[in-house]
Amino acid sequence: MADSLQEGINLYQTKEWDSALKELLKVNTKDYSQEESSELAYYLGLCYTKLKKYDDALLYLEQVVVSGQDPFRIYQCRMTLAYIYVITKRSKMAEFELHRLANNGFESAQLYATLAYAAWTQNHYTEAVDYYEKALDLDGTNTTALNGLGYILTDTGKDPIRGLRYCKKAVDLKPQNPAYLDSLGWAYYKNGELLEARTWLHRAAEAAPEEEEIKEHLRIVSDVFSG
């Protein structure tokens, strides 16, 4: 494996995304085997994903999928493609990738949690709940599913008390995650516990002061107090 490729991989593994990308883009693929080209495309796709340059990421991740060499790596790339499609509001394309994986036997908690999120972005709440529950059937400690299910159950009023329990468990497992802190605060608000709601939403806002949804939730709860 060429030195620039290996150095890029090393930098990626130490989370130096910018430096990793610069190193990988130096690689001369003239004499590369198909396996080495696929390896390069894989890490370029991941770097671009981490840097939120999603159109570039799609280009390279799709190359890995088309190569058809490593089933596990193809699974990883399809999952990443689905994530990008959800983030960029192309939920139908995300569902296509995820259903294809599920139909090929690649079930996982992460897959169902991503399907649930794609359904939620389209306001398909019952479907989202079903997918989050499938994720938790496979992994009861999956914090993405715990938080997502808890938020939907409380925000929609389907089952606020059960939703609050899920949000609490997600925060217990990852107490520094601002999204989970926000969901817990909002769940308390939806259950009528305003002091707890304000406490947790303040923590969320301190952890992620630029997040608009957190600021909006905190404003709503604060207005109740001031009103």
Account of the 3D structure:
This protein has 227 residues and is an all-alpha fold. The chain has a domain at 150-227: Serine Threonine Protein Phosphatase 5, Tetratricopeptide repeat (Alpha Horseshoe). Helix content is 78%, strand content 0%. The protein contains 13 helices and no strands. The protein has helices at residues 3-13, 17-24, 34-50, 54-67, 71-87, 91-103, 109-121, 125-138, 143-155, 160-173, 178-190, 194-207, 212-226. α3 packs antiparallel against α4 (54-67) and α8 packs antiparallel against α9 (143-155). It is elongated, with a radius of gyration of 20 Å. It starts with a helix and ends with a helix. The model has no long low-confidence stretch (mean pLDDT 93).
Features:
13 helices, 78% helix, Serine Threonine Protein Phosphatase 5, Tetratricopeptide repeat, mainly alpha, elongated, 227 residues
List the helices and strands and how they pair.
Layout: H1 3-13, H2 17-24, H3 34-50, H4 54-67, H5 71-87, H6 91-103, H7 109-121, H8 125-138, H9 143-155, H10 160-173, H11 178-190, H12 194-207, H13 212-226
Helix pairs in contact: 1-2, 2-3, 3-4, 3-5, 4-5, 5-6, 5-7, 6-7, 7-8, 7-9, 8-9, 9-10, 9-11, 10-11, 11-12, 12-13
